[in-house]
């Protein structure tokens, strides 16, 4: 682990060499340890970097409130501190909004594409925005968080997934409320991730495991048919954290996508 030099110091793991580099972004209330098994696989082909957000994991504790803009600042500072000229941001779940912000800030020359891991790319499902409101309500938050943890582990056999979710649950009300506020703001500002992609004319890959129903996959394939720069792959995994279950399958998909965006250039 290394850290950026200017406060707040951001904890970083870096493996491999070659560009475009891969920058792995954990979701809110998550940790760079999510990518522990994936980083050595992608690092065989190109520079692969993961980070902890401010207030998370090995990074400095946040002394004041912060939001998605500050997380994008953290990610951009990592890119500049490491001297990365071209980067593909890879966002777990709602860190996809940060990946898109990096494309917006740095442009297609430096961010030729983005990857989303297990995200609601077509827009929030029924009830989701209400849950985000609940996370911000002191009386309701604990129940909403418990429901999330139960949903993420129900029927999942992987000990790694259970351990990871248990660690996420150690974040308290303030961080989960912040997550709810910022995730909701992302949808309010953009409508959906695919709408944001269109506005940025940004190539993207979505690899996911949940939901497992064919309707979600079919809807994404229909979107991809109309928007050839969007790619989707359903993984042979069962949880919201497929990177813990099938890192090899994800590494292969990411490398194929990175090769495609390199060829476009």
Explain the overall architecture.
It comes from Nocardia aurantiaca. The protein has 265 residues and is α/β, with parallel strands linked by helices. The chain has a single domain, classed as Alpha/Beta hydrolase fold, catalytic domain (Rossmann fold), CATH 3.40.50. It is 47% helix and 14% strand. The protein has ten helices and eight strands. The protein has helices at 39-42, 68-81, 96-110, 128-135, 138-153, 159-168, 173-190, 193-200, 214-226, 247-264; strands spanning 2-3, 11-15, 21-25, 48-51, 87-92, 114-117, 204-208, 230-234. Strands 1-2-4-3-5-6-7-8 form an eight-stranded mixed sheet, sandwiched between helices. Helix 2 crosses helix 3, helix 3 packs parallel to helix 8 (193-200) and helix 4 (128-135) packs antiparallel against helix 7. The radius of gyration is 17 Å and the shape is globular. The protein starts with a strand and ends with a helix. The model has no long low-confidence stretch (mean pLDDT 96).
Features:
single chain; 265 residues; alpha/beta; Rossmann fold; 10 helices; 47% helix; 14% strand; AB_hydrolase_fold; hydrolase activity; AB_hydrolase_sf
Give a quick rundown of the structure.
The chain has 265 residues and is α/β, with parallel strands linked by helices. It has ten helices and eight strands. Strands 1-2-4-3-5-6-7-8 form an eight-stranded mixed β-sheet, sandwiched between helices.
Secondary structure class reads alpha/beta
The quaternary structure here is: single chain
Order of helices and strands: EEEHEHEHEHHHHHEHEH
The CATH architecture can be given as 3-Layer(aba) Sandwich
**Which CATH class applies here?**
Alpha Beta
Instruction: Look up the CATH topology.
Output: Rossmann fold
Classified in CATH, the superfamily is: Alpha/Beta hydrolase fold, catalytic domain
User: What's the pLDDT, averaged over the residues?
Assistant: 96
Overall tally of structural domains:
1
